[in-house]
Write a structure and sequence with these properties.
The chain is built from 8 helices and 8 strands; from the N terminus they run E-H-E-E-H-E-H-H-H-H-E-H-E-H-E-E. It is α/β, with parallel strands linked by helices. It has helices spanning about 15-20, 45, 65-70, 75-85, 90-95, 115-125, 145-155, 170-175; strands at about 1-5, 30-35, 35, 50-55, 130-135, 160-165, 175-180, 185-190. Strand 2 and strand 3 form a beta hairpin. The two termini are about 15 Å apart.
Length: about 190
Amino acid sequence: ETVALVGPSGGGKSTLASLLLRLAEPGSGRISCGGTDLSEVDPQSWRRQIAWVPQRPTVFADTLAANLRLFNPQATDAQLAEAIGVAVLGEVVRGLPDGLETMVGEGGRRLSAGQTQRIALARALLSEAPLLILDEPTAHLDQDTEKELAEAINEAASGRTALIISHREQPIAMADRTLLLNQGRLGEMVNA
């Protein structure tokens, strides 16, 4: 199932993602997944089950290929090429001086924010994790690229559980359900 999480800025959407990732612990109550209380699960083992695309993805001082294979170092060249195509990165790769072997620099200083976001999505596509958490995955993109990337997200989510945190229309429109987080309370919205 693909679930969109929406709500006002500062309403706790990214905090909820941090709780699901076990990067933060709840002050009270509990977080469970599939009936299992996450406080009873090893955090590192739990995180290996998640492909996370944060609002501001990290890019390391390494080649583009190494950055793309971060979640799946054994990804084949064919898998890498497919993820690049789906994440709308082909033109970016062709524009780099050494293609996939280009050193992208610490923090991805050779890349735009939108390109960095697409790298993070390609990583998620290469991951075999059953749970995707995508925090504003189409931020920093123009409308045409956003539409293409929303389709890529839909493909990445196929056969997995996906939580998409977004204010943008494209990712929300493809969700099976939409949850509204407002003043610390979750409520379900009816998708049109």
